[in-house]
């Protein structure tokens, strides 16, 4: 009985975790360049599979060991692009990341909403982090001349080429962790590599969240959570009846 409650409680906790992840994805369904998280689950081994049969039986073994939640996986699949016609809106057609300076660290983003700050640096609209060129330096521009940015990321103003955007990618994007503000940080000592990404001026990348799929997943997870909590209630009631009847017999 207690073993069944343990499995149901573990399932309910895993479902709650899934709901939190999916809810955050849906909240960012309109966030430029947002990459959704995927909640991962793992089946827990039974007591016998863990090397002990002291507290288990063949019946309990047939019930399995329950479910554990694993760290989320970020889906970096490129999303569709939408035209804005703004000179400072940029999108990457394909893989890769813009580099930005966040304090003493370099972070990475797919959010191409840029602007000029008071020092005429090209910065992100959210947070105003300086955008870095191919050499890892901030990009200084002429505020009085509209930029023309080609597909290779070269920023031209009139006859002057200001810089080339530093577009990079990682051999293993699992090393990237979200730090807030639509930014990512690398947790590896391996440096990213410069790539010949296709830059689209006057475009922004949509969020990678599919709202319909997200809502469908939320309803499915909600039903699973309800089933697990219902099983907890049933097992609790059965346990109470067993204790009550056992007390009557021994009394």
List keywords for this structure.
3 helices; alpha+beta; 251 residues; elongated; 4-stranded antiparallel beta sheet; single chain
Give the helix tally.
3
Write down the overall mean pLDDT.
88
The dominant shape is elongated
Q: Which class do the helix and strand fractions yield?
A: alpha+beta
Number of domains: 2
How much beta, percentage-wise? 25-35%
Strand line-up across the major sheet: 6-5-12-15
Question: In this structure, how is the largest beta sheet organized?
Answer: 4 strands, antiparallel
Number of strands: 17
Which ranges are low-confidence, i.e. pLDDT below 50, for 5 or more consecutive residues? none
**SSE succession:** HEHEEEEEEEEEEEEEEEEH
Give the helix proportion (percent range): 25-40%
Rg result: 26 Å
Span of the ends, CA to CA: 23 Å
């Amino acid at each position: 009985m207690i073993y069944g409650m343990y499995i149901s409680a573990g399932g309910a906790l895993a479902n709650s975790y899934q709901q939190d992840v999916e809810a955050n994805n849906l909240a960012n369904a309109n966030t430029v360049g947002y990459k959704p998280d995927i909640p991962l689950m793992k089946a827990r081994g039974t007591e016998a599979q863990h090397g002990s049969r002291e507290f288990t039986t063949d019946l309990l073994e047939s019930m399995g060991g329950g479910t554990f939640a694993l760290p989320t996986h970020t889906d970096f699949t490129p999303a569709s692009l939408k035209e804005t016609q703004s000179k400072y809106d940029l999108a990457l057609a394909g893989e890769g990341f813009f580099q930005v300076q966040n304090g003493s660290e370099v972070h990475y983003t797919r959010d191409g909403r840029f602007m000029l700050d008071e020092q005429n640096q090209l910065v992100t609209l959210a947070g105003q982090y300086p955008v870095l060129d191919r050499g890892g330096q901030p990009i200084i521009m002429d505020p009085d001349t509209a930029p023309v940015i080609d597909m290779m990321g070269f920023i031209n103003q009139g006859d002057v080429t200001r810089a080339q955007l530093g577009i990079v990618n990682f051999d293993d994007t699992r090393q990237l962790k979200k730090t807030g503000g639509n930014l990512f940080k690398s947790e590896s000592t391996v440096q990213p590599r410069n790539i010949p990404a296709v830059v689209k001026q006057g475009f922004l990348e949509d969020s990678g969240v599919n709202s319909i799929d997200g809502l469908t997943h939320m309803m499915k997870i909600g039903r699973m959570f309800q089933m697990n909590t219902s099983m907890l209630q049933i097992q609790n009631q059965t346990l109470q009846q067993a204790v009550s009847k056992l007390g009557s017999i021994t009394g």
